[in-house]
Every structure is written in structure tokens, then in C-alpha cells.
Amino acid sequence: HTHTPHIHSQFTFINAQGLAITMRGNGSLRPGLPKCLLFDKDVTTLLQALHGMRVCKLDLSFNRITDEGCRAISAFLEDPAHGLTDLSLESNDFSAKGVQHLMAGLQINDTLHTLNLSGNKIGSNGGMLIASILQISTSLQHLSLNDTDQDESSVIAFATVLNTNNTLQSLSLNRPLLKSRQDDIAVHFGNMLERNRGLVHLSLRKCRITDTGAARLSEKLAKNTTLQSLDVSCNEISSNGAASFQYMLQRNSTLQSLNLNYNKLKDAGMINLLDACKENQVGLQRLGLAHNDIGSTAMLRFAEVMRERPLQAFTLWGNPGVCDLNINASACLAISTLLSEAASKEKLQCDLQPYATADGRLMLAEQDAPPLTLQQQQQQ
Description:
By secondary structure, the chain is an alpha/beta fold. It has helices spanning 4-9, 40-49, 67-78, 96-108, 123-134, 152-161, 184-195, 211-221, 239-249, 266-279, 296-308, 320-323, 329-345, 374-379, and strands spanning 11-14, 18-22, 55-59, 86-88, 114-116, 142-144, 170-172, 201-203, 229-231, 257-259, 286-288, 313-315, 349-350, 352-356, 362-366.
């Protein structure tokens, strides 16, 4: 497999930092990139060709790199001449053995800031290896391990390590394979957030967090002064959990973004959060409430509060109060007016767009959701 023309067409030079190389397999939803697919021997050839060159970013996501390819990447990491700061190997084919190779390189490397291994089935053993590196790493700042088949033990290991590691700024551990419903994950991360003074973004999507876990996270977050972005979407949080977040938001002025999309907040949960927003005028700026079974009564309240205390961005689509075919006319008008007023000031991002039907009824349609978390904002 030889893809040399494709390789050269994807090089980008970034001043004195070196090359930023993006070779995502099959274009990976990036139509501007030529289609290609890298295997282990292709990666080895590529890295040999880059010997001695400054490479600040290497993105080899969505390819077919296995454990053997990770061995070659590890050797690349060990060479300080490259100055690599950003490595993405998302959705390849390596296992915990490949992680072992990569961690051997990271033990020597002191330049890598960002590591994305999401979508590789490295399991709990691979997670434990990465957690052990965080005990000694003084350079790694951003780590993504979504959909990597972590379990309770490895996820808790990350929370434990972060009790003392204040270098890591962003951690994403979405969709681990959890068997317990005891909210152990939330309890350990809550305890960590009370002590940690480095983490800025935390994503715990699909972690089976219930109201009990939300209460523990909120209790400890009330004392945290560094976390700016929390993503707990796709969990099992109801209005009682929202009341816990209300308690936290009334005391925390650091958290700027809270993503609660795809939970079970209902009207009461939204109103709890709106009350917190009114009381906290300097903290929260981005709020995700999409798909939470919220009705028209709470939507009317939302429009009212947003005039007094506007947010920079929010998501509401998927709730009966804005997308039901029999939508309440007053709620629709209130939200539409809010969006029109905000659009004139160019200060609001949301996932809704007003429109008029053929018979003159005012309705709301979905549009692209704005970035809610700090990580999403950085990716844009």
C-alpha cells in the first residue's frame, strides 16, 4: 500500500513549530482530504521519512493501525527532535498491547500535550497503563478515551490519579462498560474534584450517573475553583439531580459550561437550573438541556429568565415544549422572540430556528447545536 501523493497533499506547515500532519482514514467525513487507509507498514514508512523533522501534530485517526504500528509510533515519541505535542490515533485497531508500546514512548517524551485514543478497544488493562503514566507525566494536558471499553476499576483509577496530578486539564471518559449502578464513578470523581486544582474540562457521558451521583458531584464541585466545563449528558439525572446542580451553581462561579442533554430533567429540573442562573450572574454561560422531556410551562419560564440573565449558548431541541407538533403557541412565540432579540445583538448561540408554516403558524426547527463544552469550543 503506497499513498505517497496523498501523504504530501495533507502536510501543513506551522511556523517554527513544525509540520501538522493529518492522515485520517477514508477522508473520515472530511471531503477536502483524499481517501486513503493506512496500515502498520505505511505508518512505519511515513515515520521513517519524517526522521529528524519537527512534527508538532500527528493525526492518524480512522486507519488500521494495530499493536505493531504503535511500536513504531512509540519510537517516534522517544525522539525529542520531533517535538510532537498532539497525537490522535482515534478509531484504529490496537489493543492494550499497543498502549503498552505507546506508554513506553511517553515515559521518555516530555513534549506531548494532547493524546486521543478514543474508539480503540484497549480495555481496562490499557486504561490502567495510561493512568499509571499520569502519575509521573508533567506534560500531558488533554486526554480522550471515549468508547475504549473501560470498566469501573480503570475509570476509578483515573479519578484516583487526578487527586495528585494537577497537570491534566481535559479528560474525556465517555461510555465506559459499567456493570454497577451504585454511582461509584460519580462518587470518586466528586472526591477528586474537591482536591484537584488543574482539571478544566471533564466529560462523563453515558456513565450511568443518577441523582445520587449528581448530588455527590455537585457537593464537591461547590468547593472547586478550576473546572470550567462539565459534560454529564446521556445519563439518568432527573429533577432531583437538577436541584443538586442548582445548589452547586449558587456557590460556584467558575463553571461556565454544563451539558445535561439527554437526561430526565422535565419541567421541574429546568426551573431549578433557571433559578440558579438568576442567582449566579457571573458563572454559567453555556447550558445543554436538549431531549429532557421539558414542556411548554418551563419554556415560558426559560424565555423570561433569559431576558434577565442571558446565556451565551444553550440547546433545547428534542423537548415537547419546542418540537411537539401541537406546540404551545405562547411558548413558541416567547422562545422565537427571545431568539430574534438575541440575533440582533449577535450574542446568543442555540440549536433552534423559528419559521412560519404555510398556514401562518409559528414553529421552531432544529439547527446545528452550538459548542457547549470547552473541548468542543477548542475543536472549532
